[in-house]
């Protein structure tokens, strides 16, 4: 398979890229800064996904090199934990630019390449968060942007089913990444205590479900967001 | 330039035909209606076809045109009413970005 994973410089995106390279796939990754992955089947694009022009250029380059994609994992995202009364307008807009509009643009560009996939079905997977079902205070813009992504999953799954493209989501509880490094430990522990499986989610916990959701074993699943850790 | 654009559009139709059971007739291609009451495409398939044409135009002319823009869809005479009109619309758009025949 040829996969594109966004946000591969660190954290979950990097772990996913390394896993899929290890099991023999070709991986195209991106981040705003240079790659931290060195592998012959890995291609890195330095791109700011909030910039549509850069996003289009990246996908054009993928088309010229590979001619198709089999899966897209929209992992790149940003967050800002703050009471909504003290969250500046530009911060909320930036969160939506990266967490929602960049995902929408990547999906739009990727569909052209996913339609050329030679796999039985091709797949888009979007990353969501427990902040949506739990409506965690202090995360209004972040959870609202991810809530929009979950709606995107539902609607897009219907609009793309005629092209054999599945669209799903994966909802993550707190994982130790750059995104959560500023969240105080007691706050993380409180969230973990709410999970049915009350330990912190690791990147190793995410790899398997991602592999399932973009692979053949889930070819009858679309429009769903699967939450990890027992959050409902 | 018109012939080159026409070739690009026909190549996209040929590519689409590879995956269709009911083939789109391309013998009188310029008069072929793409969308509407007698059109060969339903809306989603039209969008997919136009995406393919956009890619092929970019490869052929090294320039980007949008065939699903507000400008394209809001024209009094739709560029999708025939291949001839689509070719004409693409030619106008290419000229706007400085591509001449």
In a nutshell, what does this entry contain?
The complex is a heterodimer of chains A (232) and B (101). Chain A has 232 residues and is α/β, with parallel strands linked by helices. Chain A has one domain: Rossmann fold.
- What is the overall silhouette of chain A? globular
Report the span from N to C terminus of chain B. 4 Å
Q: Give the CATH level 1 class of chain A.
A: Alpha Beta
CATH-derived architecture of chain B: Orthogonal Bundle
Strand segment count of chain B: 0
Put simply, the count of helices of chain B is 4
Tally of extended strands of chain A? 7
CATH topology-level name of chain B: Non-ribosomal Peptide Synthetase Peptidyl Carrier Protein, Chain A
Q: What is the strand content of chain A? A: 15-25%
Mean pLDDT score of chain B, rounded?
90
Find the structural class of chain B using helix and strand composition.
Answer: mainly alpha
CATH topology of chain A: Rossmann fold
Q: List low-confidence stretches of chain B.
A: none
What share of residues are in beta strands of chain B? Answer: under 5%
How many strands, what sense, and barrel or not for the largest sheet of chain B?
A: none
Q: Give the largest interface pair and sizes.
A: A-B, 9 and 8 residues
Using brief descriptors, characterize the structure shown.
heterodimer; A: 232 residues; Rossmann fold; 7-stranded parallel β-sheet; 43% helix; B: 101 residues; mainly alpha; Non-ribosomal Peptide Synthetase Peptidyl Carrier Protein, Chain A; 4 helices; 53% helix; globular; Carrier domain-containing protein (chain B); ACP-like_sf (chain B); oxidoreductase activity (chain A); SDR_fam (chain A); oxidoreductase (chain A)
In words, what does this structure look like?
The complex is a heterodimer of chains A (232) and B (101). Chain A is α/β, with parallel strands linked by helices and 232 residues long. Chain A has a single domain, classed as Rossmann fold (3-Layer(aba) Sandwich), CATH 3.40.50. Helices cover 43% and strands 17% of the residues of chain A. Chain A contains seven helices and seven strands. Chain A has a seven-stranded parallel sheet with strand order 3-2-1-4-5-6-7, with helices on both faces. In chain A, helix 3 links the parallel strand 4 and strand 5. In chain A, helix 1 packs across helix 7 and helix 2 runs parallel beside helix 3. Chain A is globular, with a radius of gyration of 17 Å. The two termini of chain A are 33 Å apart. The mean pLDDT of chain A is 95. Chain B has 101 residues and is mainly alpha-helical. Chain B has one domain: Orthogonal Bundle (Non-ribosomal Peptide Synthetase Peptidyl Carrier Protein, Chain A). Chain B is built from four helices and no strands. In chain B, helix 1 crosses helix 2 and helix 1 packs across helix 4. Chain B is globular and about 40 Å long. Classes of the chains: A alpha/beta (232), B mainly alpha (101). The interface between A and B is small, with 9 and 8 residues. Chain A: InterPro entries: NAD(P)-bd_dom_sf, SDR_fam. Chain A: GO terms for molecular function: oxidoreductase activity. Chain A: This is Short-chain dehydrogenase. Chain A: It holds the Pfam family adh_short_C2. Chain A: Belongs to the short-chain dehydrogenases/reductases (SDR) family. Chain B: This is Carrier domain-containing protein.
